[in-house]
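Re: your question from the hallway

Yes, I did run it. Sequences:
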Amino acid sequence: MKTLWDMNTIISSYWGMYVVQTVLHSAIASVFVDCAFIAWDIRAPHVKQRFRFMVIFLPLLSFPLYQFIFPRRGDAYFRLEGLLDSSKWFSLELWRGIPLFTVFIVILTLSAVIFVIQELLPIFFHMREQVRSADEPVDEAVDEAVARKVSKALEGLPFNEELVEILNDDDLALFSDTGLNPRIYISTGLIKSFNTEHLQAAIAHEIGHIQRTRKPVLIFAYIFRVLMFYNPVALIEFRRLAQEEEKVCDDIAVALTGKPGALSEAVEMFRPEPEDLGPGAGAKGIGGIASSLEHYSHDVLLKSRILRIGQRSQDGSPWGLPYAVTLALIVCINYFVV
Amino acid sequence: MSKKARGLLLMLAMAGLSVLFLAAANWLPSLMQQGFARQYDSIEEAKRSLGLDTVLVPGYFPEGITWPPSFVLAQKKPYKAVVMEFKEAKAMDAALLVIQSSWQGSDAQLQRIRMSEVKEETQYRLKGEKVLLQVGTCESRMPCSRITWQDKESGLYCTVLLLSSPFELIRIAESMIR
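Structure:
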């Protein structure tokens, strides 16, 4: 019974209602955004990103706004006439009087843990690595043939060759630092494995990432997502947003090089080996399952990118009306979800 | 029909389905378990339906306010609570509110009429029960008074709010305390 009492205190407090409603509101927003993609056949990744941004951004503001408009939105009378009263579900007793609210709390806790392990700690380690590597001299001799191949790949691309760093690594590695001093890092392994066209397409994709930092949708989305570290829907939506970003950069790469085939082949080369996929792959135990799941989801993303590069199409009509209608529907319906 | 208009119709249809889904999701818990908050026609119906053994009712009503309550809300989940509202014969709005709840913090959730300003408050014993009497104004800027105590037998927290001076309120509370 004590749990129920604690639950009442939590869900009737301002911040308790805020947490509950941000999760519910983002789940509803996510469904509506996916409905909008189907209804208006929205395919362009940069348009999809703007819609997905709504799922992360709106729930943060909607609750205080609703409460400001109608401060008694959380009381029993509003709940009685609301569209969905979450407290009914939360007080459903599962086993020995344990309410469903406990499951909800467990889900939020897991989301927060995943956020810390998968998103916050990697950033922290990456920053620490950068500070360390800044102290170390990077003056490694680069094979002349390798450097020539990079110069040739950069021909016609709007990027200064001096800002490309070659890493002495046999693995396929390519990433960019999109900070104030943007840089592209390429491993020698990748330069050797890729032909000039593939290399050019891959570098163009990274240039896309650097160009996109001027439109920092992802940075804002990340800040909002950090504020909703407990929200599993925001976790999923942020990942989808990041996946759309890869597709936006594919489009930029194709626009810069004019060679979709080369980009498609370059992406294909990043796909994991078949032995790394499937339930029996890699290490055993939970770590092994997690690793093979990660490989699998990475492969699914790469496959969808390859497929999309082949059938690239831009949405012809402007997306203003669909955006406004979706936004209005989400705002109106979420008002009645408490 | 243009692509945009077709999309709009499709989106509205999907929104309609989502609303239906949410409404069904709101109704489902009541189907699985009983005791969630709902409006009842009478106190007897609420007691019977929820199996409530103790519901304190006033034995005294000021002039113009009469039994039965114009509105009854009761629940067993997530905590026990019964709300009774009484209207004044001449007015349309509720003038007397009686709340009994097993959770002390329930007032903000259950009071349709809320005290916006407490001008005076005093704690004293009424028929042996320790009560808190507050006098002030309600949201409609009407003078109102509220009395709260915990019923010894049932352990329920009782609140009586009247859109009037405390004199009548004390008599109502007195008629409820056993």
